[in-house]
Specification:
The chain is mainly beta. Helix content is about 10%, strand content about 40%.
């Protein structure tokens, strides 16, 4: 009886028609993100240097680089910049095509600065007696 059942199952499997396979086309499109800079509200003062955390998120996917600029009412001096990838981001750290110069804080070279990067921008103290200057940043 078992032998007969196995033979019937084998014949059923052999005579079953092959499954009809069609072609499935999947179209994907890449939607680029934005280029954004965010920083905490901070002011440069005469009492000492100020470290300003700045997050630059480059989700454009173009690798064109970017330029981080100061947006202040009076000139301030940037003395140093440190960079690291944000937690959970696979970024490429910015390579400086141009360092601090006037309003330009950092110009990220082509094929660098992609993903989410955490910067710490150190601003020098203002001259003695100077009023505090709010420090903000723009990126493009």
């Amino acid at each position: 009886m078992l032998r007969r059942t196995l033979i019937v199952c084998a014949i059923a499997l052999l005579t079953a028609g092959p499954a009809g396979a069609g072609t499935i086309i999947v179209k994907l499109t890449f939607v680029p993100g934005k280029l954004v800079a965010k920083s905490a509200a901070t002011a440069a003062t005469a009492s000492g240097p100020v470290q300003v955390p700045v997050t630059v998120a480059d989700g454009r996917g173009s690798g064109k680089g970017w330029t981080l600029r100061l947006a202040t009412s009076r000139p301030v001096t940037v003395t140093s910049i440190t960079a690291r990838c944000a937690a959970g981001s696979t970024c490429t750290l910015p390579r400086a095509a141009q360092g601090p110069n006037g309003a330009v804080v950092l110009q990220a070279a082509h094929d660098s600065g992609m993903g989410v990067t955490n910067l710490v921008v150190t601003v020098a103290p203002l001259p003695t007696g100077a009023k505090p200057v709010p420090v903000a940043f723009t990126v493009r």
